[in-house]
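Name: LysR family transcriptional regulator
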Amino acid sequence: MDIKQLRYFSTIVQEGQITRAAKKLHMAQPPLSHQLKLLEEELGVTLFARNGRKLELTQPGEVLYKHAQNLLKQLEETIDEVRESNEGLRGVLSIGSVKSCFAHLPQKMKEYLQKYPLVTLQLREGDTFVIGELLKNREIEVGITRLPMDLNDFSFIRLSKDPYVAVLPNEFMNIQPSKNEISMLDLKDLPLLLLHRIQGSGQFELVVNECRRHGFEPKIVCECPDVSMILSLVSAGIGATIIPRDALLSFPSDHIKVLEICDSTITTEAAIIWQKDRYLSKNAKYFIQMFQ
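Structure predicted for LysR family transcriptional regulator:
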């Protein structure tokens, strides 16, 4: 088995047909079919089952595909590292960010691109769980995320502590008509829309526990991992929310009122994270240094 065969195999998996895979690889179909046959003979397994015109992976094929992806990615990273040892910064840097932490990125991106104009930045978005998975799957190199999260697999730099604030639709302001703050008990009977990760625990549990500490169960009418969607729903008058203050920096405030919570001390932290024990490109290293 060699790298070329693994590339051929992975392309067949991705295309679902040998014909399409051969076209993508710029080769004729018979040599590609022959390489697949040689690979199956060497391993002593059947890698594909035919379903009509489409090829589907067998269980041994799924195992090989998983490891092939890792090996091919490691090869790409090795090539990048070798080339970078003799070159300046260029190429692509993939970054993921939680929307509620995005305020940490624009200025740093501007400074980075001014210093390294030959680098192209690719941005991905997701909640904290998604950003962690993108890093583990090597789809991004660096993530800006919200703590708490399981950091066992990651190196990180803490960026800031941020207090939680209450955000109410303007039409709710008869509750606090002339104040810039609100108490937790004032939120007791309001319909609440709360940030909730796709998987794992974090801000949702922090806010719910704070409500319970003040002696009430929150009246939750919506859970969502996307802060922009939450704020849009608040703006439409559906309910109020409790979110980190810096999550509001890029959201228009025409239809909402932001209030300090006078009797709560809950805070959250943002962090820049990257995967431990993995080669980091020079592009990523220099980007991370801007946050140190």
